[in-house]
Amino acid sequence: MQRIYEPANLMEGEMLKGMLANEGIEAHLIGCDLVGGTGELPIFGLLGLSVDNDQAEYARELINLYNAALPLHGDEPESFPGTLVC
Fold it and tell me: Can you give the residue ranges of the DUF2007 domain (predicted)?
C-alpha cells in the first residue's frame, strides 16, 4: 500500500476515490475519521489516498491529469472565470 496523494479536503478525497474506482483502482481514504478533530489536530496531512503498490503509478497519473484539467471554453461561470465547474 502506498500513500499517493493528500487531498485538500474530504470532498476532494471522496471524489478522487470514486474516480479511481471507475478506473478499476481500489483506493483507501486514510484519515477521514480525523477531520472532525480539526482544531485539536494539525490541519495538514490528515487525509491521504492510498492504493496497492502495483497500481500506484497509474493512480498518480490519473490524479495528475485531474489536477491539470482546465475548463472547456464557454463552460466557466461568468463570476469565476478560469474555474472548473463539476
Answer: 1-63
Number of domains forming the structure of the chain: 1
3-state SS, one letter per residue, for the chain: CEEEECCCCHHHHHHHHHHHHHCCCCEEEECHHHHHHECCECCCCCCEEEECHHHHHHHHHHHHHHHHCCCCCCCCCCCCCCCCCC
CB 85 within 8 A of CB 76: yes
pTM attached to this predicted model? 0.71
Does some domain include residue 84? Answer: no
CATH number of the domain encompassing residue 24: 3.30.70
